[in-house]
Each structure stands twice: as structure tokens, then as C-alpha cells.
TrEMBL record, chain B:
<dbReference type="InterPro" id="IPR035906">
    <property type="entry name" value="MetI-like_sf"/>
</dbReference>
<protein>
    <submittedName>
        <fullName>Unannotated protein</fullName>
    </submittedName>
</protein>
<feature type="transmembrane region" description="Helical">
    <location>
        <begin position="137"/>
        <end position="158"/>
    </location>
</feature>
<dbReference type="GO" id="GO:0005886">
    <property type="term" value="C:plasma membrane"/>
</dbReference>
<feature type="transmembrane region" description="Helical">
    <location>
        <begin position="170"/>
        <end position="191"/>
    </location>
</feature>
<feature type="transmembrane region" description="Helical">
    <location>
        <begin position="106"/>
        <end position="130"/>
    </location>
</feature>
<feature type="transmembrane region" description="Helical">
    <location>
        <begin position="41"/>
        <end position="60"/>
    </location>
</feature>
<keyword id="KW-0812">Transmembrane</keyword>
<dbReference type="InterPro" id="IPR000515">
    <property type="entry name" value="MetI-like"/>
</dbReference>
<keyword id="KW-0813">Transport</keyword>
<feature type="transmembrane region" description="Helical">
    <location>
        <begin position="212"/>
        <end position="234"/>
    </location>
</feature>
<keyword id="KW-1133">Transmembrane helix</keyword>
<keyword id="KW-0472">Membrane</keyword>
<dbReference type="Pfam" id="PF00528">
    <property type="entry name" value="BPD_transp_1"/>
</dbReference>
<feature type="transmembrane region" description="Helical">
    <location>
        <begin position="272"/>
        <end position="291"/>
    </location>
</feature>
<keyword id="KW-1003">Cell membrane</keyword>
<dbReference type="GO" id="GO:0055085">
    <property type="term" value="P:transmembrane transport"/>
</dbReference>
């Protein structure tokens, strides 16, 4: 059993609160991704799990043991650093062997373990090289091999792919997923790249300014972002947001924006009812917006002009400008009829793809889904 | 079409660029090359001249050690030993006690160099990798000692050494120089260049500060270590004032003092003095030849890092 439990963990550096009251459970054999923009406290959280930083408050448990006062080396963890942290004066073999030497693994057992780890990462032919003689991808593998060689129960990885070029990153991503499955280990993976988070994690924990925003499986987080920060951070191109106020008339709800009033579909009227009179933000992902001819009649539609069309080959992004200058991005398949730039259109949305947020607090406005809010307990 | 494309792609990149160079460019490039070669030649002539100025006294010293006192006094002087005599060397070595002085110098120098490297490594490691109260203040005090000339502390050091009962001993000769602010400063800079992630990785792998220092930090700081070794060797080997005042009999006198005595006792045998000088300088020269690269790297390391 190697779950990791963070219980109201806080870390302060002087006046800076790097991690603020973080409670999170990483399950046994789970691949959990800690996601957030640069400076949000991800590395600090990871380093506290590793024991490289003391806690200012709270408690961390690994397995069934509170580790606040346990030395890093006794926590049964391995860490992969963004810089790889390879010892430049040692060969690949010695680098991989290094964790075994300090643990008094007998000399005759070390060789086979090193070879096994090297083989798992395709490094068998490079064992005699120094790190300086390796490519970025190879160095990264050495760092991984050094982490797996002593078979810890928890792996901590701090942006291990961010120094690789884009192509290698995609490939290594898949290999890391396989590796985790093969090792049957718990992984806490830190990244600022939401694509990595979406593709790799069993669950994603999103942080902002040291505060945990939401935890959940990638699809849940994508479909039901708990607040505006998560909504905007996950997904590319980002979710469209339109600011307005809710008004209700005769049982129907409207979003009143500077550009006019939009009738809200019944699917979100539950949320809208509670928010009547409030300043709100309506969110809709680009793939849920449809472009209709200007003359068409629909329940829920916004007047807009096609500003720019970006073709990506397999899809296109149509940037539309609303009457009040707000921009809405529409994601279309190439099979869809291509709109003409500069023409007036109406934008409609898939009602299930609409999200409503309180503009003041940023919180999602509907009955919170117990699965995707809090720490998933 | 297709084959053309493949051909142009499969050609190596450099020749393609080369083809683009026009005839005028070619001429200009050739001119530049010629001009560069000329400027290199001038530089070499200048450096050779400088080297000659520096090497000439050394050469004369060696020549004089091989001449007889009469030949040395002769005018015009001899610039080449026509009949070299090696007697001056055995005189200096045996009668002049240069063998004893050499041994004393080697012992004292080894003590000082070893002491400096060990203390500088530990102090520098603490300043680079550990957190402790008054770290900054302490470091500034270390730096401040660099500004104090040795002569200022001679009397205090002498009193201390005498009180410790180390007067006229190897301990007395070496102890005051076994720790220096300069060494701590030089190695601290080198240790600061060791990435923090390495320390963290080693801590996770179960290496405490001591083993991390020995296995990782020190090997990575080797160029700076070598530079410190060379500097402290030069300093220790060439000491004069301190060995003179802290010893009272020739049992503990070092080479530089011995040379002085050699000159005083063999006034009529100048060639013996010259032979003594060569003996005293030989270890230095051998060491400089071996550690040339480290010395230069040590001197320039600070310059490059800023
Ligand atoms: N050793 C430190 N001393 C002072 N502030 C720090 C230290 N480490 C991190 N911080 C601050 O804590 C915040 C979170 O940093 P970090 O965990 O590295 O963020 P992330 O990994 O998400 O980019 C930042 O504001 C950073 O400046
Ligand atoms: Mg970070």
C-alpha cells in the first residue's frame, strides 16, 4: 500500500504562501498529475512529499506512516527532476547505481539491477557514457532508470518532459504511461502542460496560487470544471467565456450582456434560477459552439461577425466577434461548411456544453458534483 | 521533379552553402584569412620576445651553476658553459645542507597544501550548501581576512605558536597557513556552480552532506581544487619571513632560508649559490609543467564566470 495523503499541508516562505492548506489523497498505484501554471506551488508540494522541504503546517503520510519527520531517503520514494540531476562526472552505469551504493546493496546484486533498469529504458548500449555525451532524451531516460532501480513505491516527477522537444515529448509521454503500468507504482507527476495532464493522469489535481482548485479524472475536470480558473486553464483553445447578468421573465432565463439578451436553454435553468440578479460568466467550449447562417431561428443564439479563420488541417478555429467586442472561438471539423470572414452569423451552442459561473467567486453555479470537487473522497 | 527534390535534400548541407559563395566573397574571405594569419604571426613574435625576457635570468642561473667562480666573474660573461662542472650541485646538496632544507620544505609544503585543501573544502561546502545562523556575516569576515597582509599578524602568530610550544617545529612552520580565506572563497564559488538538484537527488538517494561532498561536490570542483593546490604550493614553497623567525636551528630551516645561508657561507663560490637556487626551483618548475593546464584554468575560471 503506497498511497500518499496530504492533510492541510501549508508551506510559507516568509510572506509568500507557496502551498496553502492542501489536502489531497493520491491512491495506491495511481498516476496523479499536479497541474497548474508556473509558480503555483506544484514543485513545493512535490518537494514536501519528498522531504526536501519542511512543512509550515499540516501532515503528510506515505503508506500508513506519517512522514513529517522522516528523512527523504527513508520515505521509499524516488524523484525525477526537471534538470534530470545526473552526476556529470559519473558514467550512466554509475549514475544508475548511485542510489544502490548508499543503501548498502551488495556489490554483486547491483550489477544485475543496473542492467535491468537500463534495459527497461533502452540504455544498455550507453552505460559507459558520461551524461554530457547523451542527448536530452537519453539523459531523461537515465534519470528515470536511476529512479526505478531501487524499486520505490512512490515516484515523484517534476516536469520531467519539459526539456525535451515536442516530438520526443509525445513519445516519452506514452512510454511513461507504460512504465507506470509495468512498475505498478504510485506516481505524482507535476506539469504545467494541460495536454500532458489530460493524457497521462488517472486523476488531475489543479492548483493556482498555492490553492487546490479541483481534483478528478481528466474527463470530469474537462466536462465539469469547478470554477472559472479550471475552465479556462484546461482545454485548447480555451473555453469561451461571456460575462453578463441573469434575469428571469415568465419562467425563462436570460443572460443580459452588453450586446443584448440571450435566452438560456432549459438545461441550465436550474443553475440560472439560483443566480438571478447575479453577475455571471457563461462558459462554452469551442467545440460546443455552432455557426449558423444569420437568418436562422434558434432558441439560444448570439449575433456575431466572423473575424479570423485558423486552419489546422484536421480542424479549424473560427474566431468570432460579438456585438460587445468579446471574442468567441468556434472549433469546427473540416467537413463543416467554411464560413466567410467578415460576414454576420449567429452562434448557437449545444445546451449540454454550457457552464455557468459566479463572476464574483468564479465558482461553478449548479449543484456541485461530489465526484469532481474536493479531494475525491 | 521528385528525384530532383530528393537529390537536393540528400546533399550535405555544407557544400550547398559553399556554392552560394560568390567569387568576390571568396577573395574577401581569402584576404581575411591572410590578415588573420599576419596578426597571429605578430602576436607570436611579441610573445616570444616576452618569454625570452622572462626566461633569460633563469637560463643564466642554470649556466652560472655550471661554471667556475672565475668564469662567472669573467668579462665578457659566458653565455654557454663550455666545460660544465657539476661540483657546485654536490657542494650545495651536501656541504650546503640543501638536501635537509629540501626535505623540510617538502614536509612543510605538503602539510600546508593538504591543510588548506581540507579546511577550504569544508568551509566552502558549509558556505555553499548549509544554512546556519550568521552565515553571511561569517563569510564576510572570511573575505575580510584576504585584505590583511601576513606581516600584520606575524607577531601575534609567533606568540601563539610559541605559547603552543611549536616554536622550531614543523607544526609551527605549517599551522598558521593551514586555513585561508582565499581557499574557502575560491572553492565556495566552485561549489555554488554545483546544481542544487544534485544535492537534493543525493539526499533522496541517501547521501548525507559528508558523502555528497566527497563523492559529488569535490569531484565537480576539481579544477578549482587544483588551482588552489598550485597557489598554496607556490605560497608555501616560497615563504621566507615566517620560516626565518619561527625556527632557530637548521634542523627545521626550509629551502629559502637555506639559500640565504648558502650565499652567506659560500661567498667565494657563487656557482654553489646558483646551484642551490636551481635545486630550490626545480620542484616548482616540475609542478608547473605538470599542472600548467589547471593553473591557467584556475586563473581564468573566475574571469569567465564573472
Ligand atoms: N526556496 C524558496 N524561497 C522562497 N520562495 C520560494 C522558494 N521556493 C519556491 N518559492 C516560491 O513559492 C512559489 C511556488 O513555487 P514553486 O513550487 O516552485 O512553483 P511551481 O513549481 O508551480 O512553478 C513561488 O512563488 C516561488 O517564488
Ligand atoms: Mg516547478
Amino acid at each position: 500500500m503506497a498511497r500518499v495523503v496530504l492533510d492541510h499541508v501549508t508551506k510559507r516562505y516568509g510572506d509568500v504562501v507557496a502551498v496553502n492548506d492542501l489536502s489531497l489523497e493520491i491512491r495506491d498505484r495511481e498516476f496523479l498529475v499536479l497541474l497548474g501554471p508556473s509558480g503555483c506551488g506544484k514543485s513545493t508540494a512535490l518537494r514536501m512529499i519528498a522531504g526536501l522541504e519542511d512543512l509550515s503546517g499540516g501532515q503528510i503520510a506515505i503508506g500508513d506512516r506519517v512522514v513529517n519527520d522522516v528523512e527523504p531517503k527513508d520515505r521509499d520514494i524516488a524523484m525525477v527532476f526537471q534538470s534530470y540531476a545526473l552526476y556529470p562526472h559519473m558514467t550512466v552505469a554509475r549514475n544508475i547505481e548511485f542510489p544502490l551504493r548508499s543503501r548498502k546493496v551488495p556489490e554483486n546484486e547491483r550489477g544485475p539491477l543496473v542492467e535491468e533498469a537500463a534495459r527497461a529504458l533502452g540504455l544498455s548500449d550507453l552505460l559507459d557514457r558520461k551524461p554530457a555525451q547523451l542527448s536530452g532524451g537519453q539523459r531523461q531516460r537515465v534519470a528515470l532508470a536511476r529512479a526505478i532501480v531501487r524499486k520505490p513505491s512512490v515516484f515523484l516527477m517534476d516536469e520531467p518532459l519539459s526539456n525535451l522537444d515536442a516530438k520526443l515529448r509525445v513519445q516519452t509521454r506514452a512510454e511513461l504511461i507504460e512504465l507506470q503500468r509495468r512498475l505498478d507504482a504510485t506516481v505524482v507527476y507535476v506539469t504545467h502542460d494541460q495536454v500532458e495532464a489530460m493524457t497521462m493522469g488517472h486523476r488531475i489535481a489543479i492548483m493556482s496560487d498555492g490553492v487546490l482548485q479541483q481534483v478528478g479524472p481528466p474527463q470530469d475536470v474537462y466536462e465539469r470544471p469547478a470554477n472559472l480558473f479550471v475552465a479556462r486553464f484546461i482545454g485548447a483553445p480555451p473555453m469561451n467565456t461571456i460575462t453578463g447578468a441573469i434575469s428571469s421573465e415568465g419562467g425563462a432565463h436570460y443572460l443580459v450582456t452588453a450586446g443584448g439578451a440571450i435566452a438560456l436553454p432549459s438545461e441550465i435553468s436550474g443553475a440560472a434560477r439560483n443566480a438571478t440578479g447575479l453577475e455571471v460568466v457563461l462558459g462554452v467550449r469551442p467545440e460546443h459552439v455552432r455557426i449558423l447562417p444569420h437568418e436562422s431561428e434558434t432558441q439560444f443564439a448570439l449575433e456575431a461577425t466572423v473575424a479570423v479563420i485558423e486552419s489546422l488541417g484536421h480542424e479549424r478555429h473560427v474566431v468570432c466577434r460579438l456585438a460587445d467586442e468579446q471574442m468567441v472561438i468556434v472549433r469546427q471539423t473540416v467537413e463543416t461548411q467554411r464560413p466567410v470572414e467578415g460576414t454576420a452569423v449567429r452562434l448557437s451552442a449545444d445546451p449540454v456544453g454550457l457552464h455557468l459561473f459566479d463572476a464574483a467567486t468564479g465558482l461553478r453555479l449548479d449543484a456541485p458534483d461530489p465526484q469532481s470537487v474536493g479531494d475525491g473522497e | 521533379m521528385a528525384t530532383e527534390f530528393i537529390e537536393s535534400v540528400s546533399k550535405p548541407a555544407v557544400p550547398i552553402i559553399d556554392l552560394v559563395v560568390s567569387e568576390e566573397d571568396r577573395v574577401a574571405i581569402a584576404k581575411r584569412h591572410r590578415r588573420r594569419r599576419a596578426s597571429i604571426a605578430i602576436r607570436y613574435v611579441f610573445l616570444t620576445f616576452l618569454a625570452a625576457i622572462i626566461l633569460f635570468p633563469i637560463y643564466i642561473t642554470i649556466v652560472n651553476s655550471l661554471l667556475t667562480p672565475l668564469q662567472i666573474a669573467a668579462r665578457p660573461p659566458f653565455f654557454f658553459p663550455t666545460k660544465p662542472t657539476w661540483g657546485a650541485y654536490s657542494d650545495a646538496w651536501n656541504a650546503g645542507h640543501m638536501s635537509l632544507y629540501l626535505m623540510n620544505s617538502v614536509i612543510v609544503t605538503v602539510l600546508i597544501v593538504t591543510g588548506q585543501i581540507v579546511t577550504a573544502t569544508c568551509a566552502a561546502y558549509a558556505f555553499a550548501f548549509l544554512e546556519f545562523p550568521l552565515k553571511r556575516t561569517l563569510f564576510i569576515i572570511f573575505l575580510a581576512t584576504l585584505m590583511v597582509p601576513f606581516e600584520v599578524t606575524v607577531i601575534t602568530n609567533l606568540t601563539t605558536v610559541v605559547n603552543l610550544g611549536w616554536y622550531n617545529s614543523y607544526a609551527g612552520l605549517a599551522a598558521p597557513f593551514m586555513a585561508t580565506g582565499f581557499g574557502a572563497f575560491l572553492l565556495r564559488q566552485a561549489f555554488l556552480g554545483v546544481p542544487r538538484d544534485l544535492r537534493d537527488a543525493a539526499a533522496l538517494d541517501g547521501y548525507g552532506h559528508w558523502r555528497f561532498m566527497v563523492r559529488v561536490a569535490v569531484p565537480l570542483a576539481r579544477p578549482a581544487m587544483a588551482a588552489l593546490a598550485v597557489f598554496s604550493f607556490l605560497g608555501a614553497w616560497n615563504q621566507y619571513l615566517w620560516p626565518l623567525i619561527v625556527t632557530k636551528d637548521s634542523r627545521y630551516r626550509t629551502l629559502q632560508i637555506g639559500l640565504r645561508q648558502l650565499r652567506a657561507t659560500s661567498l667565494d663560490q657563487v656557482n654553489v649559490t646558483f646551484a642551490g637556487v636551481v635545486i630550490a626551483a626545480l620542484p616548482l618548475i616540475i609542478l608547473l609543467v605538470i599542472f600548467q593546464k589547471q593553473l591557467v584554468r584556475g586563473l581564468t575560471a573566475g574571469a569567465v564566470k564573472g
